[in-house]
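Risk mitigation, structural track. In case the binding assays with phenylalanine fail to produce interpretable data, a predicted complex structure has been prepared as a fallback.
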Amino acid sequence: MSETQPIDALRHLEQEALSAIAEAAEERALEEVRVAYLGRKEGKISAVMRLLGTVPAEERPALGQEANRVKEAVARAIESRGRILAGPGGGGHHDLTLPARRAWKGARHPVTQTIDDIWGIFRQMGFTRARGPEADSEWYNFVALNTPLDHPAADEQDTLYLVDSVLLRSHTSPVQMRTMEKHDPPIRIIAPGWVYRRDTYDATHTPVFLQIEGLVVDEGITFVDFKATLAEFARRYWGPDTQVRFRPSFFPFTEPSAEVDVKRVITRPDGTRQETDWLEIMGAGMVDPNVLDNAGYDSERFTGFAFGMGPARIAKLKHGVDDLRTFFDDDVRFLSQFAR
Ligand code: PHE
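Fallback model:
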């Protein structure tokens, strides 16, 4: 009989201590629980341990073992509760005078915004969106686009090959051919996407960049449609006072070809208006009949125009950013300036 009483008392204390530990809402309260049960002088469990000397010698080992088990269980529970209270959102150490933490708000990358704005304008003009693979063949990237493989544009120096005749597309123009293969005219598409070139990573070049391709093919499409559509785009994007200039150029897949420049009117902070320099915004031209033939279109009946632009360059001009690489660094302190 006599040995069951201290053991029962111990187990009762154990339960009591464990619930007090669970209820301790802050570190100070937990420390009070520790003193109340394990404290050398007043601790209730320590007091039972002190009674060990008074029980008969043959009962001592069993009681001693149980006392140690309870002591350790309670100590462990205090330790783990302490870790929870010390952790984030844990204890009672909140400083209510601290300013609230600012919540992070997501935003589109400035180059994505530029693509969306450009796409939005062409969508209003009746274009739809198209896409093609980033790994493509020499046929789609060059040959079908009237570019012989010995043409400088097809030079291995610029193009990243994967295997044999498979490469990472060096422009979005292969989407022209892939779209014409699948659909009959009329065609009016915008195709944004990643392109790859063997360029050094510097302020004005990145080996991976975005392009936006445009293609229009139908009966009776003329040079006037070409100029008017792109001039209208420029005025919707940069404002009604924007001037547009078509400079003769060369691309194997367009004839005639042009580089399109814009001259914008900007309003200075003091309210005065100022014309910018001419800025090149895209390569373009009337679709070469050979390209239409390669697509299986009747080039006697159908005509069209195509264009390609670099949205990162346009975002760079728009925001006065002088180094393209900052668009790739993904430094949120830089990017958050463009959040809208
Ligand atoms: N693909 C050309 C380039 O990457 C741009 C372009 C597209 C030119 C369509 C004419 C027509 O430079």
